[in-house]
Write a structure and sequence with these properties.
The chain is α+β, with helices and mostly antiparallel strands and about 140 residues long. It is built from four helices and eight strands, in the order αββββαββααββ. The protein has one domain: Roll (Pnp Oxidase, Chain A). The longest helix has 14 residues.
Length: about 140
Amino acid sequence: MLAKLETILRENSLCVLCTEADGKPYCSLMTYLLSDDFSLLYLVSTEKSRKYQNLLANPRVSLLVDTRQNRGTAAGENIVSVTFEGLFQPLADAKTLRIKTNLAKEHGELAEILNHPSCVVFAIQLKSFLLLDGPVDSCKGDL
């Protein structure tokens, strides 16, 4: 099962990050990088953004990745989705530069935010998952 989760995360680059503050949920479409050991997703934001302020207030998140981005054209092919429970982790400055460089190489569309003076790079540690293969088949577990 872990191999399937890793494949989904490596073959895609978009996720929906769900944060919460003051009892109000907030979702953001994000581009990510997966860590080599499959335990972290790296993302970027600005310090003043609602999502980042929510993360500072409540480090617990939900994160959704699915296969729509790389879905084949075969009729009847299921979309596979994975919802993760995760935990926000700020990064040390030394690690931030390396992640920003890798994000710039992999995702040119992030150039504006990566060059923004208030850009912050952070990680989400993946804790557990719920994998849905189509509308009915599911599997869940801890990471």
